Amino acid sequence: MLKYFLLRLPNTLYCVQQIKVRKFGLITRLHPHKGYHVAMAWERSYLNIQTYIPLKNNFLGNLLSCQVYGQFKTVITNSSTVKKEFTENSYAHAVLERNPVYTVTLAPKGFVETEEISDDEFQNMTRKDWNSESAESVFVGFKKMILFSKKQHSVNGETFEGIFKTLTQKCSQLNDNDLIGILACLRQWPSPAEPYSENYVELWKEVDKQCVLRMEKWDRNKLLFVADHWYLLNLGKISDFMWHCTVRLSRRPEKLTSSQLVQCMFYINIRRKFPPHISVYDFEYSLQNCLDQLTLDDLGILAMGFFKSKKPIRSQTLLTELIRRIINSVDTIHEITLAALLKVIRYSLEPTHADVLFVLMDKLVPNINRVSQLCCTHIALLGTHINQYHEGTMNEIVQRFVNEIESSRLKDLERLAFALSLYNYEHKMEPSIYKLIAKELCRSERAQEIEQHPKCLSCCLHYLSLQKIYLNEEISKVLDKSFIHTVYGKNNNKVGREILSLDIGVGLECPEYNGNRLEPKLRNYLAKIYTDRVWKYEDLTRKKLNATDQLLFEVISVAISVLGGRRKVHLGHLIPHRERADIVYGICADGSAVDIPPSFCNLEIGTCKRAPDVPNTKWYCIVVAGWNSYIRILNKPVGTMSSKLRQLQLLGYKPVIVPWFEWRELSVEEQERYLAKKIWEEFKEEVSCTVR
Predict the structure, then answer these.
(1) What does the pLDDT read at residue 11?
(2) Cβ-based neighbour number of residue 391 at 10 Å
(3) CA-to-CA distance for 546 and 500, rounded, in angstroms?
(4) pTM of the predicted model as reported, rounded to 2 decimal places
(5) 283 touches 250 (CB < 8 A)
(6) Which segments constitute the RAP domain (predicted)?
(7) How open is the CA angle 454-455-458, to the nearest 5 degrees?
(8) For 25-77, what is each residue's pLDDT tens digit?
């Protein structure tokens, strides 16, 4: 009867409007009238969860302030955004709970067993002097007080001060089961206290210390069992025991069972740090040996551990197997698992995986409308690490975001803008996806979200600027000194490239802009940080060159030969926020190369170097385009390259592009003819260059 009433409850409340919001593949009806928390049935269910349903209305609150088992969730109806029903971590832990293999290593969720006490007994216990009692008696009293007051008192109140203090002092005298029992008791409060609140911090730190001291005597299963208690207390990130536990388990991964490997990686994911001095290769090798014993959800948990600890998967066998498993189960894989796997695949990809990645993208296209926007975002980002574009996925994802743009998270819009600008995506509809994203950034309803994630605003504005979309008012806001200090701190090293790019961009492409600009000192400092250390030709001759610098060295050497000497060529950063240096030369009306003016060569890093004012001379810029300047296979320039070429023209140069895929096919003799031909063609056959 209660379940039926809950299902019918929304129909009894006054509804102004119904908004359908997609979150993690679940359709939630959000009623925006103020003041009610409405329980709605899931249209699709993955877990049978227990939900506590509070309502502000007194009558309904008294009627429904109970715990209901079933396929329900709580929707806050006066909020502009909907909170995730499941975070990655909670979903991953639920995966472990559903698998009976983990029964002995997961903390039970039931209440602590102890006898109930009356109100008078509780009051007597709060006034009792516990110092004379044994450690076991103090713990028994602690359990009774917890059971009685778990919904009525705060941990950091005076009520528990005496017993907390005494229990903290006597922790070392407790046996292992009672020590772990303290952690189980602390979990009984519906909302755990702040980690460093009074009473609470002293107790959990002492328990943490005792766990570290005793862990040498515990086997692997017990280590995982205790670690799970710390996770459920939301103390996994700061617990010393949790850290030492992951270190010890990771030392000999070949000794761990498949389930122990997965659970260990789950706690590494919680810590967001892989144990130092531990061989990731050994860990990957152990995983390879038990892949056939792991479910796709298990692999998703492993992926979370690698990604959150910033450890790419180096084993090509393991990475290929992850992609293959997704392909085989693409229609049924849970979206949180899919998102976790896609993140680590993107983080670990090498160009050698391009073919199998394209197959995966083909398989993902029909599922884009099945999964959440968050998962769609990770699908859009999948090929960005190796500049691989897949038209089918991008078209479907863009259409999905166009339809649901107002319910999209700011973080998802920012990541989508990155992928779109990287691929130079052309949206032929009007308004385009770029304009829709720009409109969202200006909506007043986004103000709170922008305040929570201000860096997303500056990054999103940067990606839009690559497509020549400038929001002057918002750009002025992010270039304000107070905004920069608030978001990035006062350490100039932490100010992002996007800030420098926006500042230079409005200076070059927005003549009507009159908003905030960076101070010259900060602009010059950032330019030195974000430009490659090759600032002049001599820098290429004094250091060991990587592949990109070697390509630049070869091109400028040939350019010097073609144009007639070092004085005819200048290597430098013409646009401060562009990482790579370019090669400048000028051709006068009679077809000969001119000397580069010394004043031009001496311009400071951080200034936009406009073409020198030399009569009857046209100025050119040889842009050496490396592999990351082009979309793979299509050989189309990425967004940053297109933007750079556009801005070079505004500075008075005609770009002469030397693509890496053309240059690498040439012999030394062919390179000189190739570059001379390009120079000749760019001058429209009116220039005759001396080839030496």
Answers:
(1) 36
(2) 12
(3) 26
(4) 0.82
(5) yes
(6) 620-677
(7) 100
(8) 333 333 333 333 333 333 333 333 333 333 333 333 333 333 332 333 322 22
